[in-house]
UniProtKB/TrEMBL annotation:
Gene3D superfamilies: 2.80.10.50
Protein name in UniProt: Ricin B lectin domain-containing protein
Taxonomic superkingdom: Eukaryota
Stretches assigned to the Ricin B lectin domain: 51-161
Organism: Naematelia encephala
Cited Pfam families: Ricin_B_lectin
Extent of the signal sequence: 1-17
Taxonomy of the source species: Eukaryota, Fungi, Dikarya, Basidiomycota, Agaricomycotina
C-alpha cells in the first residue's frame, strides 16, 4: 500500500506532461502547438511570410483569410493545433484560422488558412494510421510535392504524404 502511495504522484505528473515537439519523428499524438513535419524533405508546414513567425502564444501577426501555406525550415515554422480524431487543424495562437484545401480539393491543390468553420469539408482533416493527414470523407492527403505542399490523392506508401 505504501508503495502505491509513493507512485501515485509520479503517475499524476506523467499524465499531465505535455509532449515535446520533435521533428525527428512523425506526429504520434494529437495535441496543440505541433509542427507538421514532412519526412520527404525535412521541411515543416507553415504560413507564408518569410521571416514572419506566427507565435503559439498569439503575439505574432494575425493571419488573414487566404494566407498561403508553404513548406519551410522547421526552426521558423508555424505550429498547429491538431484535434483528436476528425476535425480542424488550426493555427496555434490564432485558433480562428484553419488549414483549408479550397472548395474543390484535388491533385496539386494549394493550401491556405481561412476563417475556421468547424465541420466545413475542406477544413476537416484526420491523421491516418499510416502517418498521413487526409481530408475527412475524401481521397486527398497533405502531400509534399516537387513545388512544395499541396493536396494529392492519398496513396499507400507515398513518401510525399508521410508526416
Amino acid at each position: 500500500m505504501l508503495y502505491l502511495l509513493s507512485v501515485l504522484p509520479l503517475l499524476a505528473t506523467l499524465a499531465s506532461a505535455k509532449p515535446i515537439m520533435n521533428r525527428d519523428r512523425p506526429i504520434v499524438k494529437r495535441d496543440s502547438t505541433q509542427l507538421i513535419y514532412a519526412t520527404r524533405d525535412n521541411l515543416c508546414l507553415s504560413l507564408e511570410g518569410g521571416n514572419t513567425k506566427y507565435f503559439a502564444d498569439g503575439t505574432g501577426p494575425s493571419p488573414t483569410d487566404g494566407t498561403p501555406v508553404v513548406s519551410i525550415d522547421c526552426d521558423s515554422a508555424t505550429v498547429w493545433n491538431i484535434n483528436a480524431g476528425s476535425g480542424s487543424i488550426t493555427v496555434a495562437g490564432h485558433e480562428g484560422f484553419a488549414l483549408d484545401a479550397g472548395s474543390s480539393p484535388g491533385n496539386f491543390g494549394s493550401l491556405k488558412v481561412w476563417t475556421s468553420y468547424p465541420g466545413l469539408y475542406q477544413q476537416t482533416w484526420y491523421y491516418t494510421g499510416d502517418h498521413r493527414i487526409a481530408i475527412t470523407g475524401g481521397d486527398q492527403c497533405l502531400d509534399e510535392g516537387d513545388n512544395g505542399v499541396q493536396t494529392y490523392q492519398c496513396t499507400t506508401g507515398n513518401t510525399n504524404q508521410s508526416e
